[in-house]
Design goal:
It comes from Saprolegnia diclina (strain VS20). The protein has 219 residues and is α+β, with helices and mostly antiparallel strands. The chain is built from 4 helices and 6 strands. The N and C termini lie far apart (170 Å).
Length: 219
């Protein structure tokens, strides 16, 4: 009986000790979880999303700055384009006004020769007894001037077109009339009324000509 009593008491003591240990463990676990919760709360607060209004405001400001930069670039490009147009207009005006300066300067020598030919004939030389000499001198001066003029023309790619016997070319010749002539080839130039000129293979002024046509018996 005594032994059974001692055993029963020992079991009771062990059970009570186990309850106290379980209670202590539960208490420790509860405190640990509460501590972890308190530690996690600030972390959760730190990970909270950024204020959307502030984010939108920053984005708007960035777009405003970008827009201002692009506007400045556009204004600069427009200003550069206007400068280019202004310079181009000035170049065109200069070309229109002064493009023939070199050509005109070359013709000054021709003008000088004409003046010298005119001044070479005195009133005395124009008298009947000297008229032949004066005419000869004038003719020589005119021939010299024409040669000088043709030389200037050639230097600029200007050449005379149209000569008696040449085949009629509507691109360089202007037919003023037609007439038959058995001694000449039909379709060729029979008379040259005004010399024509070409410039670098283009017609500058057509030659005015009379064209040979076939006699009636050959038509």
């Amino acid at each position: 009986m005594l032994a059974r009593h001692v055993l029963t008491k020992s079991r009771a003591i062990a059970a009570a000790s186990a309850k106290r240990s379980f209670f202590r463990s539960s208490l420790v676990m509860t405190e640990k979880k509460e501590g972890e919760g308190e530690t996690a709360a600030p972390a959760a607060e730190e990970a909270a999303p950024e204020d959307p209004v502030a984010a939108l405001t920053a984005e708007v400001e960035a777009l405003k700055a970008k827009n201002a930069e692009l506007s400045d670039k556009v204004l600069r490009a427009l200003a550069d384009a206007e400068n280019v147009r202004r310079i181009s207009r000035q170049d065109v005006n200069n070309a229109r006004e002064f493009s023939i300066s070199k050509f005109a300067k070359s013709l000054l020598d021709v003008s000088d020769n004409l003046k010298r030919a005119h001044e070479s004939i005195t009133l005395e030389e124009m008298s009947p007894e000297h008229s032949l000499v004066a005419i000869k001198s004038l003719h020589e001066g005119v021939v010299m001037t024409d040669k000088e003029l043709q030389k200037v023309f050639n230097s600029y790619g200007i050449n005379s077109v149209g000569a008696v016997g040449d085949k009629f070319d509507p691109n360089f010749h202007e037919a003023m009339f037609e007439y038959p002539d058995e001694k000449q080839t039909p379709g060729t130039i029979g008379q040259l009324l005004k010399v024509g000129y070409s410039i670098h293979s283009r017609c500058l002024r057509p030659a005015q000509v009379g064209i040979i046509k076939a006699p009636p018996a050959q038509q």
